[in-house]
Amino acid sequence: MLPAPNLPQTAETTAPEGWLKHVSPLSPQLSGALQDFARHPRVLVALDFDGTLSPLVDRPQDARPLPESAVLVEQLGRMAGVYTAVISGRNLQSLAEVYPEPLPAIRIGSHGAERLVPEQFSNGWSDAPLSLDQTQLLGTLTGRLQAIADRHENVNLEFKPSATVLHVRQASPQAAQAAMAEALESLQELEGVKLMSGKAVLEASVLNAHKGEALAWLRRTLDVQSVLFIGDDVTDENGFKVLTENDLGIKVGSGDTAATQRIDSPFDIPDLLKSLISMRN
Ligand SMILES: O=P(O)(O)OC[C@H]1O[C@H](O[C@H]2O[C@H](CO)[C@@H](O)[C@H](O)[C@H]2O)[C@H](O)[C@@H](O)[C@@H]1O
């Protein structure tokens, strides 16, 4: 049994007491949109992990999917005509460490750079190893980020096969701002580095992958008629942007979005999945 995650003590959770467990009822608009989606015979339900299946927490290794959400994702994945996938910015190894079995068989990691699908769908994709230049570049950018993390209290690094992430969630606002600014200044001059801002993170990657590309690939590969994508972060916007009017994009939380529907928090995911399951029954 995996330990329960620590609850975050950050701006996103300093909302009123009880906010974390508050479940908002599905709006009539969202319910209608879900009905339309549920009518398609072959669908993909793709969910982001951090901030969507799992509430955000201070340390990435403490994140876990809400148990009810994980069970419902599994149940949904066993229904005829439904594929389920987790589409994460995490690398696949890190995802497997925080997601209790059974994980959906379709997993996208590192924002799309890593793709794991059942064998019958794996034609046409293999995770490419980094070139020598990319490996050297990753070493250079990681060295620069390490120097910045060492200068600021509670600023940490997360290492991925093709990227390094600067985490400032646990730092003071001043340290967080300074570390972010230094990282941006230091890395933007490095050719071949892709910088992605997320929630209290700056990710520097030597690859150009993004979730939009991965979702479009999954749509083709699985030959589905409609895609439901749910995500909370800035990097999920690439996913929302490739959706068509046949699809459904749901943004978790506040902030500008290309998604057409919204829910308040990861705690609304179980009800949403339950509704979808009953609509397909
Ligand atoms: O695409 P996702 O599955 O949402 O992954 C995006 C990033 O999530 C993780 O960072 C975020 O969640 C952490 C744990 O809750 C939190 O501490 C951090 O502040 C958030 O930005 C993960 O660590 C990153 O590698 C992912 O890219």
How do the helices and strands line up, and which of them pair or pack?
Layout: H1 28-38, E1 43-47, H2 67-77, E2 82-87, H3 92-98, E3 106-109, E4 114-116, H4 132-151, E5 156-159, E6 163-167, H5 173-187, E7 194-198, E8 201-205, H6 211-222, E9 226-231, H7 237-241, E10 248-252, E11 261-263, H8 269-280
Helix pairs in contact: 1-8, 2-8, 4-5
The structure holds the ligand O=P(O)(O)OC[C@H]1O[C@H](O[C@H]2O[C@H](CO)[C@@H](O)[C@H](O)[C@H]2O)[C@H](O)[C@@H](O)[C@@H]1O.
Residues 48-51, 56-58, 60, 63, 88-90, 158, 165, 167, 169, 198-201, 203, 233, 235 line the site of the ligand O=P(O)(O)OC[C@H]1O[C@H](O[C@H]2O[C@H](CO)[C@@H](O)[C@H](O)[C@H]2O)[C@H](O)[C@@H](O)[C@@H]1O.
Region (Disordered): 1-20
Function: Removes the phosphate from trehalose 6-phosphate to produce free trehalose.
Pfam families: Trehalose_PPase
The helix content is 25-40%
Helices, by number, come to 8
Query: Within the largest sheet, what's the order of strands?
Result: 4-3-2-1-9-10-11
Tell me the name of the CATH homologous superfamily of the largest domain: HAD superfamily/HAD-like
Largest sheet features: 7 strands, mixed
Function: Removes the phosphate from trehalose 6-phosphate to produce free trehalose.
GO molecular function, one term: metal ion binding
InterPro entries: HAD-like_sf, HAD-SF_hydro_IIB, HAD_sf, OTSB-like, Trehalose_PPase
Protein name: Trehalose 6-phosphate phosphatase
